[in-house]
Amino acid sequence: MIIEPLKNLKQLKVLGLFHNEIFNEETALETLQSLPKLEELSIDGNPISSKMVFHYSLILTLPKLEILDEDAIKELDKDIAT
Fold first, then answer.
1. Residue 19 lies inside a defined structural domain of this protein
2. Are the beta carbons of 65 and 58 closer than 8 angstroms?
3. CA-CA to 26 of 20 to 30 Å: which in 5, 32, 49, 72?
4. Per-residue pLDDT tens digits for 15-69
5. What's the rounded Cα separation, in Å, for the pair 1 and 23?
C-alpha cells in the first residue's frame, strides 16, 4: 500500500491503517514522522506490525503518540524504546 500521500495531513490525530499490507518500514516510518499531531495509530495486521523494533521506532519518533494498536503507551514502553 502507498501511504506517502498521508504526509499532507499535518493536523491528523487518529489514523487506522490496520490490514493494509504495509511492508516497507522505512517508508512507513518516514511518512508517519511527518504527522506531528498524531496521537493514536493502529497498524495491526500489517507485515511491519509484527516487528517490535518498528513499534519502538514509532514510540521514539512520534512524540505525541499516546495509543498504538489500541494500547496506551506507558513509560516502560518509552524506556524500552530508548
1. yes
2. yes
3. 72
4. 999 999 999 999 999 999 999 999 999 999 999 998 999 999 999 999 999 999 9
5. 8
